[in-house]
Amino acid sequence: MKFVEYIWLEGSGSDRIVRSRSRLLPLIDANPRLEDFPVWSLASASVVQLPDDAQGALLLPVCHARDPLRDGDHHLVLCEVFGSDGREHASNTRAELRAVLDAGARRQQVWMAFDQPCSLRWIDDESNSAGASQGCDPIGPRGLSAHDVAELHARQCLQAGLSFCGIEAAAEPWQWQFSIGPRNHRRDEPPMIQAADQLWLARHLLQRIAADAGAIVHFGSWQGRSRGSIHGSLRTRFSTAATRGQGGPRAVAAALDRLQARRDEHLRVYGCAVSRREHDGELRADGVHAGATGQIEELRARGDADPYRVAARISATVLDIADELMSFDPPSPRSLAAVA
Please, what are the domains in the chain? Predict the structure, then answer.
């Protein structure tokens, strides 16, 4: 029997949270396929924001990885949420990204990577006070520093098989960022949706590691010693077949024009309370001459933004895909059977 941690997302905006629940499954193969993880039915009380008359929810596995926090061959399974009638739940933003892929983003070979800002706050106020006053990396109540947590998280992500690309120190000792990108991506899924899936798994692992260390991790904002609350940016690097091709400079310029022209639509999906940011961020083109990578960086998304919605919004704008795919009002007609 193997432990399988089913992971799913709830809510929206500032209420977007990662939930999980474990179960034991009789998995025989040491390297199971996605089909080996069954759909799991949950009672309505277990899932936030289900309608009052809902009978429950269904968790459909869409991505899996090794669970590095349990000894042995155990697994993490990321799921999409469906209602008991088999229709996509309103919190299922991964379905938005699937719809954008089906509408043209898949053919355009969109590659995407994320740089995730993190800030650690110890549950022990004495440790927080020491770090803020001395500008040092304090030791938490269970003997670990923020640097220790960052290093442990990096190793665990690699053990899980995620496309973890590195870590980078930030302004304060208790702040850093890690990168998830299209490195060794599976061929059965587009790199863009794989990167978003793996960012959610990496966030989940960091929250578990931080909790074991006696800390709370923040992705959206952090406390600076001199400037008060600082909002981190979920830096999103992306390119398309056109921007990477021979006509890359023209494609990059056209993409930047589209992204700048639709600023308001982007800020609406780029995380909670964007209006409280000190600045709106910026867009940056990387290598606009012939033969360069054709990569664009989107810096306007909040650190706690939903990568599914960020990826879908960027792709829809750059590739001129209908905005109707970005909304679940009215509910999407796609069903669990169609996805599975």
Answer: 2-92 (3.10.20.70), 98-108+233-326 (3.30.590.10), 112-231 (3.30.590.10)
